[in-house]
TrEMBL record:
One of its GO terms (biological process) is chemotaxis. It comes from the Bacteria. This is Chemotaxis protein CheW. One of its GO terms (cellular component) is cytosol. Residues 3-143 form the CheW-like domain.
Amino acid sequence: MAENQYVTFLLGNEKYCIDIENVAGISENVKVTKVPDAPYYLQGIMNLRGDVIPVINLKKRFNIEETTYSEDSKIILINIEDNSLGFLVDEANQVVKIDETDIDPTPEVIKRKGQDYISSIGKLGGELYIILAFEKILNHDETETVLNFKK
């Protein structure tokens, strides 16, 4: 039985995770600068070691009720098409191992809604974790639009 490692995070009270191999880093207490005329889900841009990184607000993208971000809020960094993108989350908790036998395919009812960014559902300690494919959260055109804000 193989185990995969995932970074877990919260959006509101819901638990999500992403394969650790897709995470370039996690930033905290980073100032995000708003950008005029940006798509609704683009929180803004941030400066990370001299690089301008677009930051996606996952709550807005997923139509989850907005709350005030706190000192627990984090930005999960991933690379898409050789570019870094940040994803704002309420908390990034820990790294967990989930056995392959405890990972179920995405239910059909979710697949039908066009949510192919939900790659599977993990079960760990009596809890369910929605496993996301961050590279699919934005379609190609949306990714291009967001990346244009860093220029």
